[in-house]
């Protein structure tokens, strides 16, 4: 073969090579591997974004449920003073006036109002905390004083000075109580 013919053939082979000198098949495989790596990264990013979106949605749903459940908390606290005053009014009526025909209607009306208020509290998830005879629970009770007692175990509630209330599973107002202590 002539030298010109060899040069032409060599030039054609060099023209077929990519610029970096690596055969075209290897460059394609590298490009495919790079694209697969990018795809895997993009899939991972999408999974993280999806998980984050679900977490935000769950958190917002919980906050919305809490807002619905406890929306009346401030109003309920204000109503507790009315319930306290009504209870005090009923407790202050002497037995002889309860039987008097002139006051019987008033007493019956006040008692009916108290029952209706308790019913409304119940429908809205507001419950009175039972305290007397129970052990002191600092999450539900506020000890106002200690009284020496030989009859009750130390830490047992003897007297409830002001009723405590819960709204669903949260404390609305602690019960103010007197607690037994060991006699001196």
Describe the overall structure:
This protein is 59% helix and 17% strand. The protein is of the alpha+beta class and 184 residues long.
- Helix-strand pattern, N to C? HHHHHEEEEEE
- Give the number of DSSP strands: 6
Whole-number mean pLDDT: 86
Catalogue the unreliable spans: none
Characterize the biggest β-sheet: 3 strands, antiparallel
Q: Kindly, what is the distance between the CA atoms of the first and last residues, rounded to a whole number of angstroms?
A: 126 Å
> What value does the Rg take, in angstroms?
40 Å
Identify the strand order in the major beta sheet.
1-4-5
Tell me roughly what share of residues is in helical segments.
Answer: 55-70%
Query: Would you tell me the structural class of the helices and strands?
Result: alpha+beta
Number of helices: 5
Strand content: 15-25%
Instruction: Write down the overall geometry.
Output: elongated
Summarize the structure.
This protein is α+β, with helices and mostly antiparallel strands. It has helices spanning 3-16, 24-69, 73-92, 95-99, 101-123; strands at residues 126-128, 141-148, 157-162, 165-167, 170-173, 175-181.
Descriptive keywords:
6 strands; three-stranded antiparallel β-sheet; elongated; alpha+beta; 184 residues
């Amino acid at each position: 073969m002539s030298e010109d013919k060899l040069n032409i053939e060599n030039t054609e082979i060099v023209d077929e090579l990519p610029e970096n000198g690596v055969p075209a098949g290897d460059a394609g495989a590298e490009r495919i591997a790079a694209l697969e790596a990018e795809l895997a990264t993009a899939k991972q990013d999408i999974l993280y974004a999806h998980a984050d979106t679900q977490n935000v949605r769950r958190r917002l749903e919980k906050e919305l449920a809490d807002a619905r459940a406890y929306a009346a908390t401030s109003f309920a606290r204000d109503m507790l003073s009315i319930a306290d005053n009504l209870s005090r009014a009923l407790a202050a009526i002497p037995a002889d006036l309860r039987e008097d025909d002139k006051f019987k209607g008033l007493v019956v009306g006040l008692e009916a109002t108290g029952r209706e208020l308790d019913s409304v509290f119940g429908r809205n998830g507001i419950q009175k905390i039972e305290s007397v005879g129970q052990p002191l629970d600092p999450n539900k009770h506020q000890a106002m004083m200690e009284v020496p007692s030989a009859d009750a175990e130390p830490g047992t509630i003897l007297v409830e000075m002001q009723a405590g209330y819960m709204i669903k599973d949260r404390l609305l107002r602690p019960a103010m109580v007197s607690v037994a202590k060991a006699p001196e």
